[in-house]
Amino acid sequence: MLEYRCYKPGDEREIVKLWNEALPLDPITLERFMNLVLLDGNFDPEGLRLAFAQGQLVGCCYAVRRLLPMVGTDLEPENGWIPFFFVRAEFRRQGIGRSLMEQALAFLKDQGRRNVFFASYAPNYILPGLDAQAYAAGWEFLQKLGFARLYTAAAMDLSLVGYALPGEVRALIKQREAEGYTFKTAASSDLVELIRFANEKFNPDWGRAIREGILQGLPLSRIFVARHRNRLVGFCLHGGYEGIPERFGPFGVDEEQRGKGLGKILLHLCLSSMRAEGLHGAWFLWTGETSPAGHLYRSVGFEVSRRFYVCKKELVEEGKS
Questions:
Q1: DSSP of 241-282, one letter per residue?
Q2: Whole-structure pTM over 0.85, yes or no?
Q3: pLDDT digits (tens, 9 = 90+) for 52-103
Q4: What is residue 72's predicted lDDT score, i.e. its pLDDT?
Q5: Cys-Cys crosslink for 233: which of 168, 193, 218, 257, Cβ 3.0 to 4.6 Å?
């Protein structure tokens, strides 16, 4: 006998337990689940759908839409997200996953959503998309439900063992400094401009990550800023997401200033600082593999560790096709 319902307080321990059984390559702790899901300002219990067999949790699917804007007043009223779903191994291919997903999609449709994305939800995504190599059955499942791949996000890793700031980068720094550029760790006087720069030039999630990271104890010594004649033109940092020091990013250079090696300088300064802290590696979850940033990372020695499909499904209104 199957029972379906939404989340109730106290379910979280069983959800985390099943998560770690069903998704062994991407385990999660109860604390992370609380921080990324239950304490998210957009969390709605109705969107966290659960399946039970004889009182035992056997499946889960999470749907979320914006209740709080990322920036300004934009609630992205047409968009919703499915950040994760999973079913206990012995209960798969029995229609449980489909029923949970249909309930999650119906929840989003009832909220007026037309576009549903897997899994590019900000601010609290666990993974940027679906790893089709690790979860081939999950990718097949999403396609059957009408999700289509929009693009691929590449996760990259770099070993810092033996890393040293290259001499060519030291020379490039001196060259740019002679042209009026400065490269320093952030000070309190940089913060307002830095967050605005990240929001306006790149992504509101980046400004949020910087602000919340600092509020949660991110040292300013882990943030690097580049200026040209006192105007902020680029930044990079590590330890901004979930307080994980090895996690690199966000990182960006003003489009008008690209082609001068500023990103290369900032990246190497940050990696050098990470090595000085005693860290053995640097990693991040999301970049375009063939983008300028992707090429820069590869030139430094980063290698693709995983690829994720960012997917989308359009919810069609009844009577329309």
A1: STT-TTBEEEEEE-GGGTTSSHHHHHHHHHHHHHHHTT--EE
A2: yes
A3: 999 999 999 999 999 999 888 999 999 999 999 999 999 999 999 999 999 9
A4: 85
A5: 257
Task: Give the whole-angstrom CA distance, residue 209 versus residue 186.
Answer: 15
CATH 3.40.630.30 residue ranges of the chain are 2-151, 162-279
Locate 158 and state its tokens.
Answer: 């770099």
What is the layout of strands, in order, in the sheet containing 281-287? 2-6, 48-53, 56-64, 79-87, 115-118, 303-314, 148-159, 281-287
Mean pLDDT confidence for 261-282:
98
CB 54 within 8 A of CB 1: yes
Architecture of domain 162-279: 3-Layer(aba) Sandwich (3.40)
What is the full DSSP assignment across 60-112?
EEEEE--SS-SSTT---TTEEEEEEEEE-GGGTTSSHHHHHHHHHHHHHHHTT
